[in-house]
Each structure stands twice: as structure tokens, then as C-alpha cells.
Design a protein that fits this description.
Layout (H helix, E strand, L loop, with lengths): L1 H40 L2 E3 L6 E3 L3 H6 L3 H33 L5 H9 L6 H12 L4 H8 L14 H26 L3 H9 L4 H29 L3 H7 L12 H10 L4 H25 L1 H4 L1
Antiparallel strand pairs: 1-2
């Protein structure tokens, strides 16, 4: 009997691995191997125009921190995280609480808020360029208020915050859906107990909703940081791939792509990518530590 059970378990284990095999192969080909190859190339001077590579050690990494454009791209990316990530999550949570309440037309509002996420990045960029262009709707409103118009896309102080607004508008619907799922998973009895104890709506939010949503907040935080750090399409459209004006919208990913495929410095680009990965991994570990009790 034991032999038969053992044989059955081995068969189930073998069948499980066979089902997983296609996934493992695809992940190895398209994720693990490219990541390891990029790490290897980051220690080499390698160009797409040549089949030869030269080992340079950590020179590419040192060069990155002496590259003024890379430093600007790094600061811009971190700045976008500071602007976009907190506002995205706060707005998304507020929207989720609104569509989770007893209001008419829930389905319409959920669809309307989620629509920007499934809209083409090019379309989003063009819409904002139309709204904020010189002589556009936003500048017309500013002039009606008696203020001077602003050349948003040519102003080094306004270009990056405007990209942040675009990112917030594009992704807040996605995070709203995740928060909505988290809200609907909270037991109603917790709110009933809080009401019995005399807690008002604000106290229920602080003591019931937010603690119960911490795993969801952690998930949205990691995704938000990753998508913001990997921002590419929007800045390509509004800056024609140059990160202007004066590199004020240059992001890490845009600079990595330009370094690899415009300057053909693949080894240097790989080093920049590894640095970006280390930053994101470090932020994830810090976030994990902050949300330690809730995500264990």
C-alpha cells in the first residue's frame, strides 16, 4: 500500500514538473539568460557594431557616476517616484473608496477611472500635449486668470512635473482596481464593531481600513515604483526621444536605450541597467521591512 502511494506521489510530482517545464524554459530564455548576459556585459566594453568585447572591470559603473546625463536621469527618475508614487496611491485609494460606496453608476465610474490605463501611451501623450501646449486649453485658462502663459514642454522646471501628472493619470485606475479588491475583502464585522465602539468614519479609516489594506498597499507600492522607474513611452513622445529640454525629462530607461542603440555602448548600457535594478531592489527591501508584519 505504501509503495503504491509513494509511486502515485512520484508520478504527481513528475507530472507537475512536466506542466511547469514550458514556463521554466520560456522564463530561462527570455528573462534569466538575458539578465545574466547583461550582468556579464556590464563588465565589458562592448558595442553592437563589433563582435569583440574588452573586459574593463567596474569601469562602466564608475563611468556612470561621472556621467552628468546619467546623474540627471537618475535624479529625474527618483523625482518622478517622489511625485507620482505617493499621489498615485492616495488618489487611487480615494477613488476605490468612492466606487466601493453606495453610489449610483458604480460600473460607469469604475470603467471611466480605469480607461486611461488601457489607453495607448501615445494617445495619452498627445492629449496632454494638446492640453498644455502654447495656446492650449490650460494656457488659455491661465491667461483668463490674468497670469502669464507657461511653455510647459519647453520649461525645465515644468516639464518633469507635467510628466509626473501624466503618469498619475495613466496608472491611477489600475491601482484603484487593486485597492477596490482589497476593500471588498475587508470583513464588514470589523466596521460594525468599530461603530459600536463609537468610531467615526475617519477613525474607521485609520484603525480598520488602512491596517487591513497594508498588504495591498505594499503590492501597489512595489508596482508603482517599478512602472515609474521604467517610464519610457511618454517621455519618448513628448521629448522626441531626447529627454529635453536640457535633459529635464531624461529618465533612466530612456538614457539606457539611447546609450545602447544610439551610441552603441551596450556594455555601458548594461551597467546602467544593473544600477537601476539595484536601486529598485533596495527600495523593495526597504518597503518589505516597513510592511514586514503584514507581508510575512
Amino acid at each position: 500500500m505504501k509503495t503504491a502511494i509513494s509511486r502515485k506521489k512520484r508520478k504527481e510530482t513528475r507530472d507537475g514538473w512536466l506542466f511547469l517545464l514550458p514556463f521554466i524554459i520560456l522564463v530561462s530564455i527570455f528573462f534569466i539568460y538575458p539578465a545574466l548576459d547583461a550582468f556579464y556585459l556590464s563588465f565589458h566594453k562592448y558595442s553592437l557594431l563589433s563582435t569583440q568585447s574588452e573586459f574593463v572591470g567596474i569601469h562602466n559603473y564608475l563611468n556612470a557616476f561621472h556621467d552628468s546625463v546619467f546623474i540627471r536621469a537618475l535624479l529625474n527618475t527618483l523625482g518622478l517616484m517622489v511625485i507620482a508614487v505617493p499621489l498615485q496611491l492616495i488618489i487611487a485609494l480615494c477613488l476605490a473608496m468612492i466606487v466601493n460606496s453606495r453610489i449610483r453608476g458604480k460600473s460607469f465610474y469604475r470603467t471611466a477611472y480605469f480607461l486611461p490605463y488601457v489607453t495607448s501611451v501615445v494617445a495619452i501623450a498627445i492629449i496632454f500635449m494638446f492640453l498644455f501646449k502654447d495656446g492650449g486649453i490650460v494656457n488659455s485658462i491661465i491667461e483668463l486668470l490674468g497670469l502669464h502663459s507657461i511653455s510647459f514642454f519647453n520649461n525645465t522646471h515644468w516639464a518633469l512635473p507635467l510628466v509626473g501628472i501624466m503618469v498619475i493619470w495613466e496608472f491611477m485606475g489600475f491601482y484603484m482596481i487593486i485597492f477596490l479588491a482589497g476593500l471588498q475583502n475587508i470583513q464588514q464585522s470589523l466596521y460594525e464593531a468599530a461603530e459600536i465602539d463609537g468610531a467615526n468614519k475617519w477613525q474607521q479609516l485609520i484603525n480598520v481600513t488602512l491596517p487591513q489594506l497594508k498588504p495591498t498597499i505594499f503590492f501597489n507600492l512595489i508596482i508603482s515604483m517599478s512602472t515609474t522607474a521604467a517610464l519610457y513611452g511618454l517621455v519618448v513622445v513628448i521629448s522626441k526621444g531626447k529627454g529635453g529640454p536640457l535633459n529635464s525629462t531624461m529618465t533612466m530607461l530612456l538614457y539606457i536605450v539611447n546609450t545602447a542603440f544610439d551610441d552603441f555602448q551596450m556594455g555601458y548600457a548594461c551597467a546602467q541597467g544593473i544600477i537601476l535594478f539595484i536601486i529598485l531592489f533596495s527600495l523593495t527591501i526597504i518597503s518589505k521591512f516597513i510592511f514586514k508584519e503584514e507581508t510575512d
